[in-house]
Amino acid sequence: MMKQRALSTTFLTAATLSLAGAGLAAAQVDVITVTATKREQSTQDIPLAVNAMNEETLEELGVDVFTDYLQQLPGVTAGGSGPGQATIYIRGLASTTPNLTTAGVAGLAPNVALYLDEQPVSQPGRNLDVYAADLARVEVLPGPQGTLYGASSQAGTVRLITNRPDPSAFYASSNFAVSFTEGGEMSNKVEAMVNVPVADNFALRGVVYVDQQGGYIDNVPGTRSARESARFRAAGTMRDNGVPVSATRAGFQSTADLTNVTFLDANNSDLLEKDFNDTTYSGFRLSALYDFNADWSLTVMHMQQQLDSEGVFFMDPSLDDLEVQRFEEDELDDYFHNTSWTLEGRLGALEMVYTGAYTDRNTDQRVDYSDYLFVGQYLPYYICDGSVSYPGAGGPTGTCQAPNLFVQSDTRTKVFTQELRFNTPADRRVRATFGGFYSDMEVAERNDFTYPGSVNAISFDGVTTGFAPNYPLTNTAVTGEIGNASPGYFSDPGPFPAGVIFRNDVLRTDQQYGIFGETTFDLTEQFSITLGARYYDIEVDLVGSANGSFFNFGQTDDAQVFGTNISALYGPNNAFGNPDVAATDGFIFKGTLEWRPTDGALFYATVSEGFRPGVLNRPGGASGPGGYTVPFALDTDEVVNYEFGWKTDLFDNQVRFNGNAFMVEIENLQTTIFDPSITNLFFSDNAANAEIRGIEGEVTWAPADIEGLTVVGAFSLLDTEITEVLVPTNDVLAGSELAFAPSYQANLRARYEWPMENGMMAHVMPQITITDDSVSDVIEINKADVEGYTSLNFTTGLTGESWSVELFANNLTDERGEIANNFVFDRERVTVIRPRTIGVRVGVQY
Questions:
Q1: Please, what is the average pLDDT of the chain?
Q2: Ranges for the TonB-dependent receptor plug domain (predicted)?
């Protein structure tokens, strides 16, 4: 009740202020032109919530990478665990923490669309981490944008708009930066841009960058053994997040006498390193613009980027500050190249835009998986010998090898998109945007789960509990309890490398077709109505297999060890007859009424829909309690957004106040569950219905009597709730909040510029960012608190005719601001903002 009262009070105050000061002279607040509606328009002329940062603002804020610009936007958060692994959330529409083992092929589709210029680059599991070099602006569109942007724009759309080649003049620039992080390593970057007019109608533009970001997390000494396995924990054991271990998740041998078992320790002494989470972004972008004539032009862009990262970007709060214990190497090699083309022209009165793009991405990642020990009930089967796994009458005996575990994840992603759209003249009383869209994405992912100790398991009575040292499992003969299977896809015919216990080897194909349109009717000079719709047809296909050595009683005297295929094979030859595709089609709609009572004031009311496609389930068909069956394919989860907003320029346009109040109804929210009372494998389902209520606002003040001062502030208030649970599990509870949905977020910055006697300009800019607590997941056993924080930044500098120098200090108070928390393995792993960092930036224009 108190939250609802606060929301109502804020809304009424906003509306009163808007009406009191609307509509006067020329603006002093900057006008930002965006293409959010696929037309060029000022943010103030669009009946739609749009947060935009232009090139000047991006430079002032020092925005370089993914999380930099997200932290500037209340209502926008990011889950994940480091560079190349982040997932965007808008308005609290989030459910499940991203996890490497389901990162690509089995992962849910993102519900926020990420665009690079005109092309969608959203990918399941891990978004494309595009370095923010030579950007014209960043546009964030909260709320469903499905009619224009299609699937995965369910919660909103983020667009990165690059600078286009300019035929009018030659110019170039370079930027350098060096910084020092408290208790961490030095960072440095260099970026250079050149714009070359080859002819009056032809220009080239290029940018190159290298950004080396020093580490600040320490890998410290530690040991652990299989004694800590979930196999030996009792029901009722209290987790750190306050949720007790249920009987279905208690260890099979929780009361066993382990006196006669020898546990060998994993020891990370060879991997100890201070500041081991180094990251380097390097790449280039080259674009060309050719004007055929006054009506037609072609822009072609090619980009390549390499992201190399070591270590992890989270800490263990049970250790000292910024410390973690890792027992295997963590490495990420993420490379992509992208080519796009845009043909723009005019067919009579119609503006035509045809755009296409092709992206090829290779991601090779090695992840320490040793934390799985804390939830892995079956782990002793693979690294223990004797009767630890199969105790006799005398109790368990034998040796458990050191629980060193890691995953080698190799992912190849190819995305091809095309869109053709038309705009009718913008000065007509009836205006329309309409077109068609096609996308084809392939994600080939092979995850090798490696338990090095399994090759050291000692046989007893002729039985080996893990892979024998010289007999790796091959893919050519997979037999077991389910009989013979004929897999139709293998990226690697084998044999498996030594120590590989499970291999997920799957190709996912997402194909999407869409036809869309929006039409605006000017009913009067003050009132307009916009109606939009989109037809979509999407198929998600999986082929491949998930194989392992579960209950692997192999022949130790033969050239092969035969394993058991523990799950259905995907594709037409799958062992359990699962459907081949998750297919969906249908329509979504949008309606907007706008009112312009005076110049400088716009009010709008919108009802809009969004959706996210489903995916196939590995354990589809498994039976659960009460007649429940794990679905072979998920349904789409759908949202309906009801929104009222205002855009106002007040007090001689010295004040801009934009905002909106919204309510979102969510049906069939997708999430990923592990509940042994249903099945012993992770599965995804439409687990719940939910509601979101909120208010967002942004205020810009440029006082006429204080020349050079600009104050910008923004806020977000959220109230989220799961209203109904659709799956018979205690892992999701009605009345709980959604993930990554702080009740409030706000930021405020003030920039003051003044001229010096020598012709230079000086500036200072303090900034404060505030965020409330949230939770990391909607799954109760995986849920951990993400603590709120307050962060202070400060910059000051000088600007000359062709140069600039700036001193910056980020996180002045050295706050451990939590941006994510992962509790999937029963241990908190907290991702924090970079500690206090002080540096200098130098820019030169040529």
A1: 85
A2: 43-157
Q: Is 426 exposed, middle or buried (0-12, 13-18, 19+ CB in 10 A)?
A: exposed
Are 396 and 260 in contact, with CB atoms under 8 Å apart? Answer: yes
Q: How far apart are the first and last CA of the chain?
A: 59
d(CA 289, CA 197): 9
**Largest alpha-carbon pair distance within the chain?**
92
Phi then psi for residue 648, to 5 deg, are: -140, 140
Phi-psi region of 553 (alpha: psi -120 to 50; beta: other; left: phi over 0): beta
Q: Which of 27-36, 356-365, 535-544 is predicted with the least confidence, judged by mean pLDDT?
A: 27-36
Q: Which residue has the tokens 């970026």?
A: 191
* Cα 282–chain centre separation: 21
- The pTM of this model reads 0.89
For the chain, give the percent of residues with pLDDT over 70. 86
Average pLDDT over residues 177-198: 97
Judged by phi (left if over 0) then psi (alpha if -120 to 50, else beta), residue 62 lies in: left
d(CA 202, CA 297): 10
Tokens of 429: 């009383």
Contact 335, 303 (CB under 8 A): no
Residue 9 pLDDT > 60: no
Report d(CA 831, CA 81) in Å as an integer: 6
Task: Tell whether the torsion through CA atoms of 226, 231, 232 and 235 is positive or negative.
Answer: positive
**Pairwise CA distance, residues 676 & 625, whole Å:** 11
Return the H-helix or E-strand segment holding 291: strand 279-291
Check residue 394 and give its pLDDT: 66
- Let me know: does 236 contact 251? Beta carbons within 8 Å: no
Q: Is 300 within 8 Å of 285 (Cβ atoms)? A: no
Q: Which domains does the chain have, with CATH numbers?
A: 2-225+264-369+405-845 (2.40.170.20)
Comparing 548 with 97, which gets the higher pLDDT? 548
Structure tokens given for 304: 């390549």
Token pair listed for 183 = 């208790």
Encoded amino acid at 484, one letter: N
- What is the pLDDT, as a whole number, of residue 398? 84
Task: Read off the amino acid at residue 540.
Answer: V
Q: Which residue has the tokens 């291999």?
A: 503
Distance CA 510, CA 490 (A): 19
Q: How many CA atoms lie within 13 A of 743 on its CB side?
A: 10
The structure tokens listed for 219 are: 């890998």
According to DSSP, the β-strands at 261-263 and 398-400 are parallel
Q: Are 793 and 800 in contact (CB under 8 A)?
A: no
Residue 736 has which token pair? 């709980």
Q: What is the DSSP secondary structure assignment for residue 392, as one 8-state letter?
A: B
Instruction: Look at residue 109 in the predicted model and tell me its pLDDT.
Output: 80
Neighbouring residues of 429: CB distance < 8 A, sequence distance ≥ 6: 521, 522
How many other C-beta atoms can be found within 10 angstroms of the C-beta atom of residue 682?
17
Calculate the CA 452 to chain-centre distance: 31
CA 424 – CA 409 distance, rounded (Å): 48
Q: What are phi and psi of 107, to 5 degrees?
A: -80, 155
Judge whether 7 and 720 are in contact, CB under 8 Å.
Answer: no
pLDDT at 625 over 70: yes
* Closest-CA residue to 401 (of 448, 451, 450, 459): 451
- Between CA 677 and CA 304 the distance in angstroms is 47
489 pLDDT band, cuts 50/70/90, is low
Which residue in 265, 571, 596 sits closest to 403, CA to CA?
265
Closest CA to 87 of 697, 835, 831: 831
Nearest alpha-carbon partner for 616 in 681, 548, 543: 543
Higher pLDDT pick, 54 / 461: 54
Looking at residue 275, its pLDDT comes to 96
Q: Are 712 and 748 in contact (CB under 8 A)?
A: yes
